[in-house]
Amino acid sequence: MPENTRPRPICAHCDGFPTVAVTTGQTTPDGHRQTITADCPACHGTGHTAPARAYTRVGA
Ligand SMILES: [Zn+2]
Is 51 among the domain residues? Predict the structure, then answer.
C-alpha cells in the first residue's frame, strides 16, 4: 500500500485517546450521569505529538 499521507505521530502519552470522560458518581437534575472531561496534558487533547522542529543544523 503506497503511503501518500504521512500520519501525524500518535501521542505516546495517551495513545491517541486524548480526551477521556470521567464520571463523577453524581447525576445531573436530568438524571444523566455527570461527567467531566480531561484532556491529555501531553498533547492538550489533540491526540498527536507536536511535530518536531525541522532539523536543527549543527555545524556548517
Ligand atoms: Zn496525548
Answer: no
pLDDT tens track for 16-45: 999 999 999 999 999 999 999 999 999 999
Strand partners of residue 21: 37
Residue 9 cell numbers, joined: 505521530
**Whole-prediction pTM value?**
0.55
Q: Is residue 53 part of a domain?
A: no
Domain region containing 26: 1-43
Ligand 1 centroid, distance to 10 Cα (angstroms): 8
Rounded to the nearest angstrom, the distance between the alpha carbon of 50 and the centre of ligand 1 is 10
Secondary structure tally for the chain: helices H, strands E: 0, 2
Ligand 1 centroid from CA 57, angstroms: 28
Domain count, the chain: 1
pLDDT at 55 exceeding the cut of 80: no
Q: How far is the CA of 3 from the centre of ligand 1 (A)?
A: 24
